Amino acid sequence: MKYKMMVLTLILLMVGCQKKVEKKSTTIPEPVNIEFTLIGMGNLLGNGSEGIEAGSLWITGQSEWNDLIEKMNTLYAVSDTFIESDIDFTTFDVIASFDIVRPHTGYVVQVDKITDDSNNRIVQVALRVNNNGFEVPSQPYYLIKMSKSGKTVMFQ
Fold it and tell me: Which has the closest alpha carbon to 118: 30, 58, 33, 35?
């Protein structure tokens, strides 16, 4: 009888002391939408004389911002139309998106959405076409500010 009790105790100890293995979650976290604020949008009317290439810029500091405003103001004081131009770069980053020079003002470039995934901040930029613009060469632009993060900004 003692033998049976001892065997039963050993079995219970072995079963109770087994290492529990937790299953790791393989689900990918859902992207989180990031709020942003419009700074300005419109068209540069210098037929490319501003020297700004098509594409999107991630601006993280005051000197980069000043350089961009200076280029944008080459022909006209475009920055006078901005909702705001004094950006606190300790809190915010700026995204500036530019299209190519177009034959009329019926093109609009804009940021549709910003999301954070586990590693990156993803900015989705879109081009809209409305053929009702003025017949003057123009380069659409769109400027926003968003909260700073430690993540790399990527454009889609």
Answer: 30
